[in-house]
Amino acid sequence: MEPGPPGSFGPAEPGPCLSGQRGADHAASASLQSAARTKPGGHSLAVAAVLPAGGCGERMGVPTPKQFCPILERPLISYTLQALERVYWIKDIVVAVTGENMEVMKSIIQKYQHKRISLVEAGVTRHRSIFSGLKALAEDQLNSKLSKPEVVIIHDAVRPFVEEDVLLKVVTAAKEHGAAGAIRPLVSTVISPSADGCLDHSLERARHRASEMPQAFLFDVIYEAYQQCTDYDLEFGTECLQLALKYCRTKAKLVEGSPDLWKVTYKRDLYAAESIIKEIISQEICVVMDSKEDNKHVGHLLEEVLKSELNHVKVTSEALCLAGRHLQQIILDQCYNFVCVNVMTSDFQETQKLLSMLEESNLSILYPVVVVSVHFLDFKLVPPSQKMENLMQIKEFSKKVKERNILLYGLLISYPQADKQLQESLRQGAIIIASLVKERNSGLIGQLLIA
Ligand SMILES: Nc1ccn([C@@H]2O[C@H](COP(=O)(O)OP(=O)(O)OP(=O)(O)O)[C@@H](O)[C@H]2O)c(=O)n1
Ligand SMILES: O=C(CO)[C@H](O)[C@H](O)COP(=O)(O)O
Q1: What ipTM score was computed for the predicted complex, to two decimals?
Q2: Would you say the CB of residue 350 lies under 6 angstroms from ligand 2?
Q3: In the chain, N or C: fewer CB atoms in 10 Å?
Q4: Which residue(s) pair with 118 in the sheet?
Q5: Quick one: which H or E segment has residue 372?
């Protein structure tokens, strides 16, 4: 039941938004947030979250429970925690895990520096795990640091792509209606089979919806419902909204959710989740160069070719010399891909400077950072073989920085005198860079690729 080996460092502040909407519409988000924090009377709304994480992931078909399966070497549950903890108005996050996985969970919290998390022991069914989380939040608990929230969010630990806007929508609707949950249109039609395995009847697809997570409730409503519900409900029930309806006559407001809210269930869902994460962290590349004229000139040429080859990626450039001030900002803004330009040289001074800055920044705690050390050489004047000995040092550097979750690759780009040939080698270089950034293949680190 050991989870796969995650990376090994300590994160900075809550990582980037996994929604791919980084930096988008700050003003709208701020006003939404203040709406969530403020009751009509002007007092802040106390919101907590309960994450059931005590399942064994039978349908995934692997020995590790799916919430601990690694994606880019970090356990799935860490992405979900990151998504919730970056929403500052969620005060407490209560995670239900089995006794057997308690230590694993504690080490994940420590390694990725998750904040505001409390752990409780999970039950044998999802409903029992949720009930256990709710009990920890109820005010009559002795020796508890937690306090009873007005609204509680319930969210599966295996739905990592939950965004702040849907959390806010369900919380706001729960405040008004007592309960609320995210829904999606049905993909397949739901049918009811009879005992002999034949079709009994089918439901009209357009009139039904798939119930997803997150859901939110007035705490008193859902706690009352769990206290009243039967053992049968706790054993076989799959819908919290139904408990609120059945035991508290609270009709949940249904909120349209995004397709990324789906529950990681089968093995293929891990691959899908990995692709989504890779896509999000590959959206920006920073070309780093020093201020020497030659270096700047060819660095900007490469930047232009990258821009035209990768039109969906934001390509920026930055000088390494200004005591790294702008570069620090780019690191703070969570750019996870760097191309370091070295002209007519096979030493790694520039690349090493950049690597030191990245190591100091802790940027790579949550996601692997790609660094491509680009060396422009005129292969006619300087045969690569002459420089090989020096260039091979990249293997050692890459091993060292891999421990800090930095993926270092080497790229030799031919620097011929003729403009047309240079354009062609820059284009080939850009294609290689794009693929290194997109794939984040740790098997290729320390390799010298040639364009
Ligand atoms: N006894 C249980 C069972 C499930 N869960 C949690 O409930 C969420 C959604 O349940 P599901 O996807 O069904 O998870 P598993 O039960 O682990 O998967 P499977 O049904 O394939 O065994 C997951 O975060 C899971 O860890 C839980 O906290 N306690
Ligand atoms: O989709 C959901 C809400 O309705 C739940 O995630 C789902 O019902 C969990 O149930 P199970 O453990 O049976 O998969």
Answers
A1: 0.94
A2: no
A3: N
A4: 94
A5: strand 369-377
